[in-house]
Amino acid sequence: MNLFSHIWEALYPPKCVFCRRDNGLVCPQHQKELDLQPEKFISPKQFTVFSVGNYSHPAIKKFLTFYKFNGIFTLSDFMGQQIIQHWSHEIPPKAILIPIPLHWSRFLWRGFNQSTRLAQALKKHRPDLIVCQNLKRVKRTKQQAKLDQKNRLKNMQNVFQLKPLNVPTNTPIFLIDDVYTSGATLHEAKNTLAQQGFTNIQGICFARTKH
Known about the structure:
Blueprint: H1 3-11, H2 28-34, E1 39-42, E2 48-51, E3 53-54, H3 58-68, H4 75-87, E4 96-99, H5 104-110, H6 114-125, E5 130-131, E6 135-137, H7 149-155, E7 160-162, E8 173-180, H8 184-194, E9 201-208
Parallel strand pairs: 2-9, 3-9, 4-5, 4-8, 8-9
Antiparallel strand pairs: 1-2, 6-7
């Protein structure tokens, strides 16, 4: 944070997105209401993912609505802080963070990529980490939230393309997304990297849906 940012924050302290009080972007009371539950889990396709929140929790859903759809993208700093606080010991030094990309048309509509913001926030709290945006989305897809499990998997087939990544194939790579629901998006991204020979791939998300 530069000097101007410090001065601005001193004059105009951030207000809690839930109660609008001057206690940070998420005040202590509402941090408790988020009921964060750090979890390391193995997906059905043997893919390790780290999360800190339960997406089924109403407060978590409201928080992510503020973040993704109300444009309060500064919430990524809180998300990154919580993930690093709970999972930094699982992330090797100089690991590569690859945010899940948006299709260019959706990026223009939303104005920012929530996964890229989260990856940058993780790097802010762990400066040794490397944010890499070599993964591209080459096909516009239907919104996953509107599809059942079978169609989610079909919807995500062949949507990503990886630009050359000039690092050893056993380099620790973490795919970054804000929410893990069916896992279709992260699994397809993992498959895209695996097709290029990468073998040490895991996922990080802020919240997951528990089935």
